[in-house]
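Progress note, project year one: complex with 1-O-phosphono-alpha-D-glucopyranose.
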Amino acid sequence: MEIKKVVVPVAGWGTRSLPATKNVPKEMLPVYNKPVVQYVVEEAQGAGLTDVVFVTNRNKTIIEDHFDYNLALEDVLKRTNKMDTLKMVHDVAEMVNIISVRQKRQLGLGHAVLCAKAAVGNDPFALMVGDDLMFGMEPGIKQLMAVAHSEHMPVVGVVEVPSDKVSNYGIIRGDEFAPGMYRVRDLVEKPKVSEAPSRLAIVGRYILFPDIFEHLENLSPGHGGEIQLTDAMKELAKSNRLLAVKIRGQRFDTGDWSDYLTANIYFALQDETLRDDLVQRLKELLPYKG
Ligand code: G1P
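Model obtained:
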């Protein structure tokens, strides 16, 4: 079983990040010196995924352009002898193959995944939601691929969240059969704290098999009137066909301003040419009360 394709839905409005996202796709907001979506594609590439299926809309074409050559820019960089920058710009276009499908109406995450059906074909595939950035020793999606591979089953990534955050996520109920690994019994999309079956929240990393499409095709709108991927996975759980794995590593939800800004600092601190200056500036700002 070889997984080569990853579906990355990018057709959402990004309302949490307005007004920054009024005309700029949320996936193109920079985290330090790269757009959010580039980190996602780098994680996919790090896991050996070669084909990225963007589920996109008419306002998001600059996302595909980011992973294409910009020959006019490369020409300017060559002529001005900015060879390091040239390499950086050029390499992004060499990372992965890009397949683009349109989500003509934004009817939910489940609907976005269904739009990728023809592009995915008959093999298991990865799904990465662009808002979530994950960093660890091993790419988050690779941790799930290893389990899907050994168990031949769909796998969803989870992290433990504080109880006041459970209503922002799909929450699983599962039996832990090995440390950090769960057989999923049920899932609830964005439950109230009082109704959440656990604090294990689905993060935007999944390994799915083509049978998910049948479940998605038969779904009625769920939470928020949207076609919910969580509801399709509920069907998998019913037939004992879904595992969850606690992803190890640092996670940032870039749709949350606090996480987004922390992610910027996290990456900037790893740049030695910036670190000392940045730390000094942050120290100066700390007494600031507004
Ligand atoms: C989606 C899923 C939700 C999951 C979340 C992770 O929600 O529906 O189950 O927990 O992604 O980022 P969204 O954030 O698109 O509302």
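The longest helix spans residues 272-285.
The chain has eleven helices and 13 strands.
No further modelling is planned for this target in the current period.
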